From TrEMBL:
Molecular function via GO: heme binding; iron ion binding; monooxygenase activity; oxidoreductase activity, acting on paired donors, with incorporation or reduction of molecular oxygen
Transmembrane segments: 12-30
Protein name: Cytochrome P450
Top-rank taxon, per record: Eukaryota
Entry-linked SUPFAM superfamilies: Cytochrome P450 (SSF48264)
Record-stated family: Belongs to the cytochrome P450 family.
Cofactor: heme
Binding site for heme: 454
Record flagged with keyword Cell cycle: no
Pfam families documented for this protein: p450
Keyword Oxidoreductase assigned: yes
Keywords linked to the UniProt accession: Heme, Iron, Membrane, Metal-binding, Monooxygenase, Oxidoreductase, Transmembrane, Transmembrane helix
Length: 483
């Protein structure tokens, strides 16, 4: 009897054995995290987690899971989500054995097989790359950083004053969200590549850059949600979508643009200059590494910064009392010389000295965090025991643990019963120093923590501080003139 015949005769036995083995495996997987509760079916199937990740309101669904099931909730057979400050800081501490989860990190690659700072899961390579790039992001080797940001703040103000101020005879609709994106894109392109795209000059999405990168992010979210990362990262699929930097769909344009700018700079002794790209070259990044990192900073830097600016202004304009208090502080700052009169731009140091402005910025970013992605970390092999709310909790090795950022920032135990309300005064009136320290520590997690903290934080906050002060000043002066 041939092997094929024997297998055929035993087909039902093989089917039954396979089903039994599968059920045993599923039970084993379920029991690993059975101590953690979550949405219906999340312990047995990826369905809930995939549907949540692919949706546009994943941040809200993760918050609901933590609100209902506790500071650590189960959202998949091998996935947890947490809003615990202790656990999040523990996972990201400088010497933490945790690493980025492959299923998510690989989905952020811009080219198949090519990692950047965010997608790198090898901790040794990640640490070395952060060290190479830290000085450039900090501004210590980019002496023109603040002057560069000022240039584009002035362009934004000029655009508003010349094109979008309404008069008694004519109302000018103004999409501030769009202009905030133009500002962020121009700033990060100049800071990162040495030249803007010209969005503010033309009042348009030059080369459809924003449209293209948003489409790329949607594709990335789709691939992560459906488990298609490794398929879409294959070279032949990448060529189809242009993510290899070759001709294809228009996802390739940002890569070609970055490569062209980098190659041009490298031909002109760029390491002798004082900007971010020159700093990266001095610290050993190759041309290909520069391309990978530039796409990361252009997409991530512009999207999160513009989101923060838009959300802060949204809450300002819908809270008249806050608006009036900030107006009074800005007027006083100009009157006493803390800020220069127009067309001068306030310095970052001066902006940070204004307590109510800082409270508005912190509160706006807290109530609507700029990034709601899960950013999962992998529990080290062998598992780990952590203390959450004073109780020891064991996490099995290989488990993915994500952050529920909105649950974290809207935590009533940390920010009070009105945690979901926009109230900047909470940062100024809190008398309990210990509680205020916890609030600040929690807020800082918006930018990550420890070995995973966002290197672009100094640039983002500089841009946000200046934009908030100067655009608010323009709006206030226009309102006074109208009155």
């Amino acid at each position: 009897m041939s092997l094929f015949s024997a297998l055929y005769e035993s087909r039902w036995l093989l089917v039954c054995a396979t089903l039994v083995a599968y059920l045993v495996y599923k039970v084993w997987v379920y029991r690993r995290l059975s101590a953690f509760k979550g949405p219906f079916g999340s312990g047995w199937s990826e369905l809930w987690h995939s549907a949540t990740t692919i949706s546009t309101d994943a941040h809200a669904k993760y918050k609901e899971a933590c609100d209902k099931y506790g500071p650590i909730a189960r959202v998949g057979p091998n996935d947890l989500v947490t809003c615990s400050v202790e656990l999040l800081t523990h996972m990201s501490a400088a010497r933490s054995p945790y690493s980025r989860s492959v299923w998510f990190a690989r989905g952020t690659r811009t080219r198949p097989g090519e990692d950047h700072l965010f997608s790198e899961t090898n901790e040794n390579i990640h640490t070395r790359r952060r060290q190479q790039m830290a000085m450039g992001y900090s501004g210590k080797e980019n002496l023109e950083l603040e002057d560069t940001v000022d240039v584009y703040i002035k362009k934004l103000i000029q655009l508003i004053r010349t094109k979008y101020l309404s008069t008694p005879d004519s109302a000018q609709p103004f999409d501030f969200g769009q202009k905030a994106q133009y500002l962020a894109v121009d700033v990060i392109n100049d800071v990162g590549l040495g030249a803007p795209l010209g969005d503010l000059d033309t009042d348009s999405d030059q080369f459809r850059y924003i449209e293209t990168t948003e489409a790329g992010m949607k594709l990335g979210r789709l691939s992560v949600s459906l488990g298609l990362v490794f398929l879409l990262q294959s070279p032949w699929i990448a060529r189809l979508f242009g993510s290899s930097g070759k001709d294809g769909l228009r996802f390739a344009w940002p890569l070609r643009h970055a490569r062209a700018r980098i190659n041009e700079r490298l031909r002109h002794d760029t390491e002798k200059r004082s900007d971010m790209l020159a700093s990266f070259v001095r610290h050993g990044l190759t041309a290909e590494e520069l391309v990978n990192e530039s796409i990361l900073q252009l997409v991530a830097g512009s999207d999160t910064t513009s989101t923060a600016i838009r959300s802060i202004f949204l809450y300002l304009l819908t809270h008249p009392c806050v608006y009036a208090a900030l107006q009074a502080e800005i007027d006083a700052a100009v009157a006493d010389g803390t800020a220069p009169p127009a067309p001068g731009i306030i310095s970052e140091t001066a902006a940070r000295s204004l307590p109510y402005l800082q409270a508005c910025i912190k509160e706006g970013m807290r109530v609507h965090a700029p990034a709601g992605s899960p950013f999962p970390k992998r529990v080290p092999d062998g598992g780990d025991t952590v203390v959450v709310d004073g109780k020891p909790v064991f996490l099995p090795g290989g488990t993915n643990v994500s952050v529920a950022m909105f649950a974290l920032q809207l935590n009533k135990g940390i920010f009070g019963d009105d945690a979901q309300e926009f109230r900047p005064e909470r940062w100024l009136l809190e008398k309990d120093e210990k509680k205020l320290a916890v609030m600040n520590r929690t807020h800082d997690l918006i930018f990550g923590y420890g070995k995973y903290q966002c290197l672009g934080k100094p640039i983002a906050l500089m841009e946000i501080n200046k934009a908030m002060f100067e655009v608010s000043s323009v709006i206030f002066s226009w309102v006074r003139a109208k009155d």
